[in-house]
Amino acid sequence: KTKLAAAIAGVAVALIAGGGIASAAPDPILNTTCSYPQVIAALNAQSPDAANQFTSNGMATGWLQAFLGAPPDQRQQLYNQAQGVPQFQQNRGLINQVAHTCNNF
Predict the structure, then answer these.
(1) For residue range 59-73, what is the model confidence (pLDDT) as tens digits?
(2) How many CA atoms within 13 Å lie on the side-chain side of 37?
(3) What is the pTM for the complete model shown?
(4) Most buried residue, 25, 57, 71, 92, by most Cβ within 10 Å?
């Protein structure tokens, strides 16, 4: 159960992480104007199963809410921490889809 919770929390971090920190241009998710409900709606549209797992984990949802409510410098720190999450690479496609569509919700 602990491994599952850690994996879901990792996905939460990955969902908002977006891309590599070595890129020349900042990742769009760092400056997103999307709200938590918009991100969840985009996640539900892209992957209902992932959305269900995500929203059932209080630690994951809390982390995302903190990220979205953080000023740019704190978002960067949270983003940098997300780079160490193994699920990040596994979910890159979903992360990008959510980041690019959340403003539509």
Answers:
(1) 878 888 988 999 988
(2) 1
(3) 0.73
(4) 57
